[in-house]
Amino acid sequence: MTGADAIHPDLKEASVFVTGGASGIGAALVEGFLRQGARVAFYDRADASATVEEMEARTGNRPLFLQGDVTDTPALMAAIDTAATTHGPVTVLVSNAADDTRHDAQALTEAEWDACLAVNLKPYFFAAQKVAPMMEAAGGGAIVNMSSGSYLMGVPRLSAYVASNAAIMGMTRSLAREWGGRGIRVNAVAPGWVMTERQKTLWATPEGVEKHRQSQCLPELMHPEDLVGGVLFLTSNAARMMTSQMLVIDAGVSVTG
């Protein structure tokens, strides 16, 4: 049994919105919420029509797929409105969409820097801003911002991405303090190196993977499903007094505290 198998009764029928839910960690999170009986909408620029059918077949619960780019703020706001109209006011937001393309810091251009933050930081704030009134009117809600263990470790060739994820944690703490009185909890999750298809295709060389595995306390490689239990916990009443925190799920690579 894994954390993804735990049942949180309060998540049944919850209106959940996930960005970047078509593949990788995001798809695992969408399916995890579907298994809880939640009403799930997810937003992604990739066509996820086939994914919707597969998820419904596996869980008996059909998600609402809304296609668009998180860098298009008006489109993202409209998608959240559509989700709220279809499923009720959003009370669980998981901002997950990200782009961890590697780059040489010396050669990074201003346009590339701006493009990185446009994906990895800006949508996190405006999605939270959009759902906050819905959550307050509903009596409360939970926001989980997916950060990255890369910023805890200062991983090279990811300077703009690492900066974005450090900012996500700062923003998480600020919003948690500002919105706690409105019944809104805001937390972050920092995954380690998760073996998504993207990672395996682009960067996970046998040598690199083995070196990273040796840096973990736990010997098994991480997979998208390993993030589901922690996110479900943070969005459920099991974590009702937990806010302004970062949950590090990285098999013990980082040391915090």
TrEMBL record:
Keywords noted in UniProt: Oxidoreductase
SMART domains reported in the protein's UniProt record: PKS_KR
GO MF terms held by the record: oxidoreductase activity
Presence of keyword Secreted: no
InterPro entries from the UniProt entry: KR_dom, NAD(P)-bd_dom_sf, SDR_fam
Assigned protein family: Belongs to the short-chain dehydrogenases/reductases (SDR) family.
Protein's recorded name: Oxidoreductase, short chain dehydrogenase/reductase family
Organism from which the protein derives: Limimaricola cinnabarinus LL-001
